[in-house]
Amino acid sequence: MRTSIRGLASAVALLAGFAFTAGASAQEVTLKVHHFLSPKAPAHTKLAMPWAEAVEKQSDGRIKVEVYPAMQLGGKPPQLIDQVRDGIVDVVWTLPGYTAGRYPVISAFELPFMVTNAEATSQAVQEYYGKHAKAEFGEVHPLFFHVHARGSFHTRAAPIKTVADFDGLKLRAPNRLIGSALDALGASPIFMPAPALPEALSKGVVDGTVFPWEVVLPLKIFELAPNHAEMTSPRGMYTSVFIFAMNKAKYDGLPDDLKKVIDDNSGMALAQRMGAVWDKVEVPGENKSRERGNTIVELADSEVAKIKEITQPVIDTWIADLTAAGHDGQALYDDANGLIEKYSQ
User: Fold this and answer.
1) Residue 240 in contact with residue 94, Cβ under 8 Å?
2) DSSP notation for 93-138
3) Per-residue pLDDT tens for 274-333?
4) Is residue 60 left, alpha or beta, with left meaning phi > 0 and alpha meaning psi from -120 to 50?
5) Would 105 be classed as within a structural domain?
6) How many domains does the chain have?
7) What is the pTM of this model?
8) Residue 107 lies in a domain
9) Do 84 and 141 belong together in one domain?
10) With left for phi above 0 and alpha for psi between -120 and 50, is residue 204 left, alpha or beta?
11) How far is it, in rounded angstroms, from Cα 117 to Cα 137?
């Protein structure tokens, strides 16, 4: 009898051990992160990989993160937001503006002259999202938003020095709103994801692009479009909004302690940090262009004022469209401006 009791106790202990192991294993998770730029781009080296390493370390290895750059898991860049919504991947870095008209509230920051620097404007976007745009991102779990530094003009044949120089140019546009601005300036906007631009430039499909200096280096735009025009005014011509988002069900299914790991690597602190990163990564692209002997001009204040005047109808139309859709378009625009100024002090 004594032997049987000991055997039974051993069996119970063994089963308990199995149960504990199974329970611990059930809390371990793998996150697949997908984005559209190369493994050499700052989006990979400065954002996705450091985020993955921080999450793995802070979770004591219970969260494993696999990062797939350059659309390695299939699809095209505009499909990334649907991939994370549908659970095809767990986390994406992408642009809401790649799906035109789908995220109109957050697009306030993609209007002309809605950027000072990336750090300040990223914080403005993050606060604005919390106040105004949660509903339109309800199908995913946003981790944080950020923007790139102000975009400049990069052209093949000659630099843009005046408003008249836009006339007839075919320029790659990053989103619908800046496309409308380019159209108002006399250029023909051509829409395509960033990775498609080098081939389009080399084949003459486009005459140039509006891009931050950061992208000029990894995509070798400084070789294909060696003429550059930038604004040194308090506001730049444009920026683009980026989202780092997680599948909602994947986040909701995490145990509380692992949710905290994700939360600790989300929100305003990450928006500010990534904005600062995007300001810093501007420098190598511009330096490489200068080292190569490319032409770089600063647009005169008088020309910037003309551009503002010509593109104002794009802003007016956005306000009217948002108001027609049931929002207070003017209030949204005013608050976005106010937040940019708040964080730019």
Assistant:
1) no
2) EE-GGGSTTSSTTGGGGGSTT--S-HHHHHHHHHHHIIIIITGGGT
3) 999 999 999 999 999 999 999 999 999 999 999 999 999 999 999 999 999 999 999 999
4) left
5) no
6) 2
7) 0.90
8) no
9) yes
10) left
11) 25
62 neighbors 258 (Cβ within 8 angstroms): yes
> Do 69 and 218 belong to one domain?
no
The token duo for 338 is 């106010």
CATH number for the domain that contains residue 207? 3.40.190.170
* Residue that has been written with the tokens 């002309």 in this structure: 112
Helix (H), strand (E) at residue 65: strand 63-68
Residue at token pair 């250029």: 187
In a domain, 21, yes or no: no
Do 146 and 278 touch, CB atoms closer than 8 A?
yes
Distance CA 345, CA 337 (A): 13
Give me the amino acid identity at 266. S
> Do residues 110 and 178 touch, judged by C-beta distance below 8 A?
yes
What residues contact 32, with CB distance under 8 A and at least 6 apart? 66, 68, 73, 89, 90, 91
